[in-house]
Structures are given as structure tokens and as C-alpha cells.
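Before relying on records like the one below, remember that each one covers exactly one chain. Contacts with other chains, cofactors or solvent are not represented anywhere in the record.
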Amino acid sequence: MGRENQSSVSEFLLLGLPIRPEQQGVFFALFLGMYLITVLGNLLILLVIRLDPHLHTPMYFFLSHLAFTDITFSSVTTPKMLMNMQTQSQSISYAGCISQVYFFLMLGCLDSFLLTSMAYDRYVAICHPLHYITIMSQSLCFLLVIVSWVLSSASAILHTLLLARLSFCGDNLLPHFFCDLATLLKLSTSDTTVNELFILTVGVVVITLPFACILVSYGCTGATILRVPSTKGLHKALSTCGSHLSVVALYYGTIIGLYFFPSSNNSNDKDVIVAILDTLITPMLNPFIYSLRNQDMKGALGNILSRGTFS
């Protein structure tokens, strides 16, 4: 009832990716393969962490939550995009669109908080190794994850409620492959000033502040690493931090490309392409980064494969 009173639009039409019709089949196969790699790769991370007792540490506790978040984050938009490419049906219901906005924002914020928790874990491990077990207790790890979920859910709910109060009359064409919040605000016939102010405020809390915390923690970590006299100790420190830094660069690089350097109103192609990086390519690369750059993960995977072969 509330939705019908505020909006005459019952569905939106997703214009999808800037791809020529004759190329749809090739890109469908490519994106389907990438999505399957994303799901299977992150499930493999979850399985390896679950099966290897040596990985039952705070770092890999956070990594398991990050892997689960990447699976669900990619699943919010990619299956619908693939279905639209295959069936040539561009429609998404109003309720489905609002739901997609909520889960996309919630999981995106959760990624930011989890990366910050992982950066703090590396800071404690390298800068305060003698107190690591005391500081990074099980209760603190659970608290960090719970707070991350609560803050992410709260910000996404508020965004969604503010979006649901807007009216959408007439134009229902979304020049995107999913229901992007900024694109939806451009279609609304209501005053979106409150929404835009809230986006700016929440962006500082869930993106800028965590990113600043990550930079500070790795600045301190880097200074400590440079003072390590042992080459072996330096190599181990770089091994544990290198994977996380690569993921941070990918995640915040796409965020900066989308929201700090937006395209003009007349051209949305760049935003769509960068969104593909954010929703599909980055979650797909995470398992490769943590598997190929992380000695502990490679060792654990090798042990599990060896046990499977001998059994």
C-alpha cells in the first residue's frame, strides 16, 4: 500500500551493459565463468579454513567472513544480470529493486569493515607480537564481526527507507545492470536532498574512516617491518600483509573510481564498467590473491589435497 501511494512505477527496466547484441553470447559465457569461479573459489577458502586447524586464527576468521561476503555480494547482482542477458528481459520489480539496493549496500559496507578488522589484526601481529594472543582474543574477534554486521545493516536499512519514500513517475529506465542507488535517485521525481546528504554522511563513516584506519595501521606496520633485522621475519611479514594490501587496493580503487570520479550525466558507461570490477572481478580475484600470495593458505591447501590423495 505504501509503495503504491508513493510511486506509480511497479517495475524498472535495466538497460544492462554497453554491449552490442551480437556480443551478448560471448560476454554471457565470460561473466558466467567469472561468477562460478567467484563462488567456487571463495567456497574453497571457507573449506580450507574450516578443515585446517592451523588456520583457526583471527586473521583467517576474518578472511572466512570476507569470503562469505564476497559470494553473497556478487550473487546480489550477477545472477539477475546473467538472466537478463540470456532471456533479453530487462525488467525488475520495484520490490526486487529495493531489496537489491539493500543487500548491495549492506554487503559493500561489510566488506569495508572486515578489511579494516583484518588490517588491525596485521597491525597487532607485527607491531605487538608478544601481546597478540591477549589483544586479539576470540571475544574481540566476534565483537568486531558483530559490530561490522550491525553497522552495515543499519546503514543499508536507513538508505533503503529513505529510498522507499521517494516517488518514481514516468521514466523507469535504469542505465545500469542492477539497481544502483545513485542511478535510482536521478530517476526520482521527489526531492533527493536528504538522500544525498545521508549518502555523504554514511560514506564518511563506512568508507572514508575505515580506509583512513587501514592506511594508519599499515603505515605503522610498514615502519615496524623496516626495523626488522631478520630477512626471514621480513619475508613472513610481507607474506601475511601482501595479500590483504592487494585486496584493499582492488576494493577501494573501484570505490574511488565510482564515487570520487563519477561520469557525466550523459555518459554512464564508465560507471557500469567500474561497477563490474566491484561486483564481479574483485570478488573473483580475492581467492587467487589469498591462495597464490599467502604461504599459509598454500600450505593448508597442499596438506588437504595430500590427505585426500592418500586416503
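Confidence is low (pLDDT under 50) at residues 1-7.
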